[in-house]
Amino acid sequence: MRLGARKGHVFILKLLAVGVLVAGCQSVQNTAQKIVERDGDQAKLISRLQPDYVPSKLAVGLERDLMNKRADSYGLISVPEMSDHLNGIRDRLLRASGVGNVPGRVYVSADPMLNAMTTPDGNIFVNWNLLHYLASEDDVAAVIAHELAHNLLGHADSTIYGQYVQKTRWLHRFGLEIVVNMRDSAENGHQKGVKKGEVSQLHNLQLATMFATKVVSPSWQRTQERAADLLGVDLLVAAGYNPDGMLNVLSVLKQYEDNNRKGPDWNKLGNSLLAVAKGDNRMKLYGGISAMEMVWGHDHPDAETRTADVQAYLSRHYDDSELSSSYQKTNWDKVRRHASFRKLLVAYEGALTAHKLLESGQAEAAYKKSSATIGTARNHAYPAFIYAMSLDSVGKYKEAQVALKQALDPAQEGSGKVYDKLASIMAGNGRPKDAWQLMNSGYERFGKAPQMVPGMVRYQRMSGDRQRAGETARMCALNYPDYSDYCMDEANRT
Amino acid sequence: MKKGVIWGLAVAAMAATASVTADEAISVVGTLARPAKLYEAPDTASKVIDSWPANTSFEAAPKQVKGVRDSFVQVDHNGAPVWVLIRSIKSNRQIRIAEACGSMPGDNMPRSAATRGVGEPCK
């Protein structure tokens, strides 16, 4: 009976392992092919493109992609004139690429950070604050060309390997827990708990995961960023844009990096290195990986290196005479100064300023700024939320409630960050159950967006329902590999 | 909603974020692996007056830019104004950006690993 039970346990683990391997091997093979990509030293990267686009295996569909973005951000800013212009640029670049059937559109995200991003569905999100620093259509085209290049080169799929490793790790751990529970009840008091060899297996898997996600993945991404810059340059040239747009964007990013540069956390680095020096072999590995993450864990090369790479690429593959040296400004100036877009930007800028004023204790000034600038953005989550807080801070409670309702109105443009913020305020006021409910409603509203789950786990735990927090965290670990560590950390926190 | 309930807690966690003013100053600090052509006018079809050798460093005395016209910057060369393509030189561009990463909850959460951004996210 006991032997049979053990055989059963081994079978379950083997089944899990085989299942994961079968699911993962094809993806790993594809990823390996993409890692060894030429970097443009010999030929222009545009010459590598195939006429038919290969959709990403990680695409989730338009609606879900947009919901994920809303859950992960301050929301989306929709102004038809701006949207048409940005998508017109994308179309021009795509035509020049020669690749057909590429899905996706360009959207303006309400996030203030100077960044833009693309998803496996091919959608491109440009943060409104970055648009401020783009002086010409060529600069805007450079941002879109970089993101489009990621799509055309199939970069998103290389993430499958990291997700596969994460999932394997958690499947192994949960499988082991089932085995241990079954064994404990079968052996009736003989040897309970996890055996030494099983602990070792778990630690080895954790090390493999850490190495894959903290060191190897950022390193792959740095290679991909360089390729996206260089193919982006090809697309700009092929579409008749000035490729210096890419250099201009990188100059903005360099300044941004310089302003926000944070050196390594020396205490943390010191502790990691101490573990390397003093610890046992496994601790040495943990410390080593942690130190490597701090030093090499960035997923982008620094902007100065990228600038040098772009200049070298231009010099290697193009002659000055075949490149545009003027900028297209007229249409871009018209679009970015369009009244509807300006009004929304004024509202978002006002909200950010009011945000800062609230932080520094200037309630009256925050209220004045927020009420003077919100204008047509009352139905936009972030400005409405800041407006609500400003009203609350000057004692206008009824109006604050109305504004808060607008900030959370499911019929309007939503933001997951507003849910996150409000939930943290509720929990801080001793209402973690309300915070949990709020995060849960956000999770539903944003189409079960994984970004909301760590917060749900946090407030379930703070409400005293550790069992539910554990269940949610397990669901998260198996379904949303990118967020699994966050969910499990939230569940296990004391 | 009680007085200060939102506000009091929000203060601790909220952060400054953006400004929108941009300004730029440029100086030339060197050349790349190829010589940089010096043009008579801000046009690649114009006469090439001279060139700077490859891998020249002006770090000790960066050349001040007197003017900018599209992709060209104007500098003094042997006492005369010339135009050089900004893509053919190493430059030091100072752009005024008063923006900092925010600290709304979730700002430090990883984005989905499958996304690709043009810059590094806030850490």
Task: Please describe what this structure looks like.
- The complex is a heterodimer of chains A (494) and B (123).
- By secondary structure, chain A is mainly α.
- Helices cover 69% and strands 3% of the residues of chain A.
- Chain A has helices at 2-35, 62-71, 80-97, 128-132, 137-152, 159-187, 196-238, 244-260, 266-278, 281-296, 303-317, 330-336, 339-359, 363-373, 381-393, 397-408, 416-428, 432-445, 453-462, 466-479, 484-492, and strands spanning 76-77, 106-109, 116-118, 124-127.
- In chain A, strands 1-2-4-3 form a four-stranded mixed sheet.
- In chain A, a hairpin with a 5-residue loop joins β3 and β4 (124-127).
- In chain A, α5 packs across α8 and α9 (266-278) runs antiparallel to α10 (281-296).
- Chain A is globular.
- With 123 residues, chain B is mainly beta.
- Chain B has one helix at residues 5-13; strands spanning 24-31, 36-39, 48-52, 63-64, 67-69, 72-77, 80-85, 89-95, 116-117.
- In chain B, the strands form three sheets. In chain B, strands 4-1-8 form a three-stranded antiparallel sheet, with no helix packed on it. A three-stranded antiparallel sheet of chain B has the order 5-6-7, with no helix packed on it.
- Chain B is elongated, with a radius of gyration of 23 Å.
- Chain B starts with a helix and ends in a 6-residue tail after the last strand.
- At the A-B interface, β3, α4, α5, α6 and α7 of A face α1, β8 and β9 of B.
